[in-house]
Write a structure and sequence with these properties.
The protein is mainly alpha-helical. The protein has a single domain, classed as Arc Repressor Mutant, subunit A (Orthogonal Bundle). It contains six helices and three strands, in the order H-H-E-H-H-E-E-H-H. Strands 1-3-2 form a three-stranded antiparallel beta sheet. A hairpin with a 5-residue loop joins strand 2 and strand 3. Helix 2 packs across helix 5. The longest helix has 19 residues. The radius of gyration is 19 Å and the shape is globular. One of its GO terms (molecular function) is DNA binding. It holds the Pfam family HxlR. Keywords: DNA-binding, Transcription, Transcription regulation. This is Helix-turn-helix transcriptional regulator.
Length: 127
């Protein structure tokens, strides 16, 4: 098997964090995961998305959406109407990563009984 050339994103940046790790952090953050999965279904207005996700502050949702937009995963469509309307949807890149995130979330849900059994066994062995 031929070794793969090193990616330009394998090297640490000046702050000690690889760029791809930052994107991974954005995508797998608590709110990033939920935003991406929710936007897989359809586009949302901010308030609709906040209600659909639940228990997220306005500030946190705003920051999450801005971060995902900057990464090219979310599209923000501001319509010049009265009252102003802003819709959020996934880009093609966002849809691709959201499918991956949803698969992980589905696996977690499907395997939760096994995880719980492992936790109980671990706690019992150390308790």
């Amino acid at each position: 098997m031929t070794p793969q050339p090193a990616s330009k994103y394998d090297a640490m940046d000046g702050e000690g964090m690889c760029p791809y790790r930052l994107v991974l952090e954005h995508v797998t953050s608590r709110w990033g995961v939920l935003v991406l999965i929710e936007l897989l279904e359809r586009s949302y207005r901010f308030s609709e998305l906040r209600r659909a996700i639940g228990r997220v502050s306005e500030k946190m949702l705003t920051q999450t959406l801005q971060t995902l937009e900057r990464d090219g995963l979310v599209h923000r469509d501001a319509k010049a109407v009265i009252p102003p309307r802003v819709d959020y949807s996934l880009t093609d890149l966002g849809r691709e990563v959201a499918e991956q995130v949803r698969a992980l979330a589905t696996w977690t849900k499907d395997r939760m009984d096994d995880v719980q059994q492992a936790r109980e066994a671990y706690d019992e062995a150390r308790g």
